[in-house]
Design a protein that fits this description.
282 residues, Arc Repressor Mutant, subunit A, 7% strand
């Protein structure tokens, strides 16, 4: 039962039949008179059904009129735009997120050092990615989009962690949201393609993501006509496209409604998605 329906049920019955042990008498003016035991039982029951609003309970009476006149405000609650959400981030929240960013990178560095002590390239990359992410403005966006930096330690397969190229792609998205300009050509091609596919009512598949990353990937004319395409080699396209899709997933802009093997990427209605569309259209 929804909250609104629960409220309606209580009011329509106009009786305190919420708890099995309640035998209250309904009196004039929609007010129920209870003894102490009945009052406790009703109060507990109201808490249990999690009503949107609860009637005013004073001494030995329940005033159902207070419930009748209360409207469900949750349906009309305003949704902040991403710009508004970022502006609402406090210094304390931003500082806490910066701590989380450093902790996540510390853990990832430890993992990579133990997994392959001789792989200095990945440690160098991680250092650069940390420097790009551990900034107050970027931390504020992570707070506003509710992204936990520990995603970089997510294990998708045994012995592996979130792809480092995906971290780089996410940094590009974050900095683009912060400055208004995206730099990564794969990110731009994929995002523009996704918005065009949605407008055309066409599903954005894994093949579409590959073709957006590389114009060397063969697709039919119907798909090629709405794609925005970059020019990497066909052999590079899988890594490039998957890292972009992973970054967009982390930030909450897309979700996979297909499978791991045959993904169907769908844009969400999140404020971050709407902001991406605005910036790409500017």
């Amino acid at each position: 039962m929804t909250k609104k329906k629960a409220n309606a049920t209580v009011v329509e019955n106009n009786e305190a039949h919420i708890g099995e042990n309640v035998n209250a008498t309904v009196v004039e003016n929609n007010v129920t008179v209870l003894d102490d035991a009945e009052l406790t039982a009703v109060t507990d029951a109201l808490d249990a059904v999690d009503l949107v609003s609860t009637p005013v309970v004073t001494e030995d009476k329940i005033d159902w009129n207070s419930l009748v006149e209360t409207e469900d405000e949750t349906d009309d609650a305003p949704v902040l735009t991403l710009v508004e959400a970022i502006a609402a981030v406090t210094d304390a929240q931003r500082d806490a997120k910066l701590v989380d960013i450093h902790a996540a990178f510390d853990e990832r560095v430890t993992f990579e050092t133990m997994a392959d002590p001789g792989n200095t390239n990945i440690l160098k990359n991680l250092k650069g990615y940390r420097q790009k992410m551990a900034l107050p403005g970027i931390a504020g966006i992570l707070v506003a989009t509710d992204v936990d930096p520990d995603f970089i330690n997510r294990s998708l397969t045994s012995g592996k962690r979130f792809n480092v190229y995906g971290i780089d792609k996410l940094n590009d998205l974050l900095h683009g949201l912060n400055s208004g300009h995206f730099k990564n050509a794969i990110n731009i091609a994929v995002m523009k393609s996704m918005f065009k596919f949605r407008a055309a009512g066409v599903k954005f598949t894994g093949l579409a993501a590959l073709a957006a990353a590389s114009d060397k990937v063969k697709v039919d004319k119907g798909m090629s006509g709405i794609l925005v395409r970059h020019t990497v080699s066909a052999s590079t396209a899988p890594t490039q496209s998957s890292s972009t899709m992973n970054a967009l997933s982390v930030i909450g802009a897309v979700r996979n409604t297909g499978s791991v093997k045959f993904p169907i990427w769908e844009l969400t209605d999140a404020p971050v998605t709407k902001r991406l569309e605005e910036l790409l259209a500017a």
